[in-house]
Amino acid sequence: MAAVGQFASRLSHEIRNPLTSIKLNLQRLERHAAAGRMPDECVGPLATSLEEVRRLDGVVRGALSLARMRPLAREACSVHAVLDQAVATLRPQLDGQEIVVEQDLQAASDIVLGDAEALKGVFLNLLLNAAEAMADGGELRISSELGPGPRGSATMIRVRVADQGPGVSPELADKIFEPFFSTKGEGTGFGLPLALSTVEDHGGTLRLDESPPERTGAVFAIELPLVGAEEEGRKR
Q1: Could you give the CA distance from residue 146 to residue 149 in angstroms, rounded to a whole number?
Q2: Residues 42 and 89 in one domain
Q3: pTM for the full model?
Q4: Residue-range definition of the domain harbouring residue 83
Q5: Quick one: which of 15, 147, 217, 231 could link to 164 by a disulfide (CB 3.0–4.6 Å)?
Q6: H-state helical runs in 35-149
Q7: How far from 20 is each of 57, 188, 205, CA to CA, in Å?
């Protein structure tokens, strides 16, 4: 991972510096276009070029994030509290899209050893994906429960995020966690891979679950070990 981090840092230097120069020059031309000092036939290609520069910058930022340039700040944190913060952050967008959030947080214990900000980023990614899948509104269901760990005891918290969008087709289910793969026209393909990497760094799992028969849409399940789970496992 150290080698990956060094490569990502070099990539950032070699690409983002000239990319910034290109972006600044394009923005200068954009101001000329807005003032009417550029032929009309050049305005469209200019806008396309700026959009592609922004997309490439997003790809580089995604690669840097995936390489995880900073260590996780591990401390005891409440998964339910992190979920509440993520929902509150997106509340204006969710309300604007007429998306109703239903929370059913049944897990009696939700304390994990992890980086609260990194976990919030995971939940934000899943919630944003769900919102984008429900452009015409719908119900976003967030639930939690305790689940058995490797030795059968209730040492994991399982969180599910379920939307009412079109869902994920079977042929794409194995690809959505691959870097650079995206079903969105403007996506960089780093959201879910970064979320998966973050969850795995916390000793957990992230997967696409099957939707229940009575619902449409995608269901993502996250499992994280509760505080003390590793110690309990070593005692057995």
Answers
A1: 9
A2: no
A3: 0.69
A4: 75-235
A5: 217
A6: 40-66, 79-96, 116-133
A7: 9, 18, 37
